[in-house]
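#lab-general

N.A. 3:47 PM
ok so I finally got the sequence cleaned up, no stray characters, all 377 residues accounted for. can someone with queue access submit it? mine expired

B.Y. 3:52 PM
send it over

N.A. 3:53 PM
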Amino acid sequence: MKFTVARDVLAEAVSWTARVLPTRPASPILAGMRISAQGQELTLSSFDYEVSGNSRIPASVDEEGEVLVSGRLLADISKSLPNKPVTIEVDGQKVSLSCGSSHFTLAVMPIDEYPLLPAQPQVAGSVDSQVFQQAVAQVSIAASRDETLPLLTAVRVEIDGDNITLLATDRYRLAMRELKWDSVSDMSEAALVKARILQDVAKSMTSGAKVEIGLSQESQPGASSLIGFQAGGRRTTSTLMDGDYPPVRRLFPETTTIQAIVERHTLFEAVKRVSLVAERKTSVRLSFSDGQLVLEAGQGDNAQASEVVQAQLMGDDIATAFNPQYLSEGLSVMDTEYVRFGFTHPTKPAVITGQEKADGGESTDFRYLLMPIRYGI
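B.Y. 4:20 PM
back already:
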């Protein structure tokens, strides 16, 4: 096998594919990256039995073939090379890499021991890559980081025709984002994908205008159900989690009797300032009245802070308290100029949505349900 490829193209593809490589591989062979040269194309692959990564790039192939080398070592070398064409050639049990005056020799790993990558699920539809990245970022903040509750570390992906709904909760907050996509089939399916994997995929799949998504629900014993993503020559799959996700949609109230509208960035900055004196596991208190919102944190002999911001209130005065981190994270993933709080009672969950103007235009594509402090979903 022998091929030549542009340094930047190789470095980017190797770096992307190396994301999948396990830090502590169950088998040494999983630390390898498979390189296949066919036609005028190079395919780089990695797999850890849960997630697979596959990147295709153009190359000038003199001799076709495939080889397995240490993925992290190749990634480190690729990033450090001078900006000149890279030539890689297999010579027996060694791989020779040349770039300008730089030369490296890598050991060949036994490719016949490397597991076969799962087949990419058939594409069910596509979605704008930037919209998908934003949607995943908005929802994944609410996924649990507690591995003792594995189901809650996942994002539930619901596909129903032309609609996709993403849901995540850690029992103290719930995020839901609805979006349209270009469906190629009248699919109605639900899947649980680990939030960290979905976040990584969404961030790294922005090289193309669209992200194509497919689901493979295997019925054979021992087979894994998969979700697949592809964009701009990059493909990745992930096994799905098994289990019954809690019926969290019902937590959103049908109506809210008290509503308040606040400028999002002003509130976000105020929460950050006031929460500086909020000790761990303590709250930021919010008191809504006609024309204003008072934020307070700290109490007793400890440090205290308060700030007043403008707010529109529809309904009775209301005072509640939230975890400042959860409130800040919810505000940070919105992109509207204003946010709307919907309340039913001070001790009941509040629904936060965005809107572009102070006098209307509420957007319910993204809804963030936040429990008052000292209460759990």
